[in-house]
Design brief:
mainly beta; 2 domains; Thrombin, subunit H; six-stranded antiparallel β-barrel
């Protein structure tokens, strides 16, 4: 995945078609199956660890639950599309939301190849510091994708691509008291439905934000911080057998989450 994270060093939007095939293994649509049997694309997620740990916007996963916390979807899945254009569906049995920020973490069970070896997920690299005001920022997501009924079957039509804008403003105390009460960023990326939860990257391809919301037909969108992923605790298995509860920050310290600035640092 080195090409993905270093593809934009000359401050041009990373939109080469060959990069789309690479990044689609790390950034994927999240879908839910309603109890009436109808599929719906609810957002985007992206891997932050080779161990199947991914980040997204909290409201994307909460879309499968009602206000009382009762699950309204029969199934919530990540749809990973590989470079050979074959896709696989992975259940999202559990997720871990931040209390206030619009960010969440989920984990899928890693697949195995024909020899029984674990196939680790490809992931993007995180950074805590946002891009400077006025700098180009980029996202990769699946807006404008849809599910169509064809001959009594449902067919998925995904439209992934890179979208570019600029960093416009920091909201150190949040944008509002309900949807984005935690610190966040305003960008000029045009964000359509389905882009929520996708990564927001600087010109080096490092992810500093998570798409939260936008206004259709405008170049106004808001992103939550990677920083708010760090305190979230997850129940994870790093050896395929033993489960342990660790925060994303603790996983970054030991190099299991791709946040290089924390790897090997003193936890104190």
């Amino acid at each position: 995945m080195a090409d993905i994270n270093k593809a934009n060093t000359q401050k041009k939007v990373i939109c080469a078609p060959e990069l789309v095939a690479q990044i689609m293994e790390a950034v994927f649509p999240i879908c839910k199956l309603n109890k009436d049997g109808v599929w719906k694309i609810v957002g985007t997620g992206f891997f932050i660890s080779p161990f199947g740990i991914f980040a997204t916007a909290k409201h994307v996963l909460m879309d499968a639950f009602d206000k009382q916390g009762k699950q309204t979807a029969a199934r919530l899945v990540a749809m990973i599309i590989y470079a050979d254009n074959n896709g696989k569906i992975f259940n999202i049995p559990k997720f871990y939301p931040h209390k206030t920020a619009d960010v969440a973490v989920g984990i899928i069970n890693l697949p195995k190849d024909g020899n029984g070896n674990v196939v680790y997920s490809k992931n993007l690299v995180l950074i805590r510091n946002p891009a400077p005001i006025g700098e180009i920022v980029i996202t990769f997501a699946y807006p404008n994708s849809e599910v169509k009924l064809q001959e009594n079957q449902q067919a998925f039509y995904f439209a992934p691509w890179f979208y570019q804008g600029r960093m416009e403003e920091y909201y150190k105390k949040g944008r509002d008291g309900s949807m984005l009460p935690a610190p966040c960023y305003r960008t000029s990326i045009q964000s359509a439905g389905g882009a929520s939860g996708g990564p927001v990257q600087n010109t080096e391809g490092e992810v500093f934000g998570i798409n939260s919301t936008g206004f259709d037909g405008t170049n106004i969108s808001f992103a939550s911080r990677v920083e708010d992923l760090l305190p979230i605790k997850v129940d994870v298995s790093l050896d395929g057998k033993r489960h342990q509860v660790m925060s994303i920050k603790e996983l970054a310290y030991i190099g299991k989450v791709a946040l290089p600035e924390l790897k090997g640092k003193d936890k104190s």
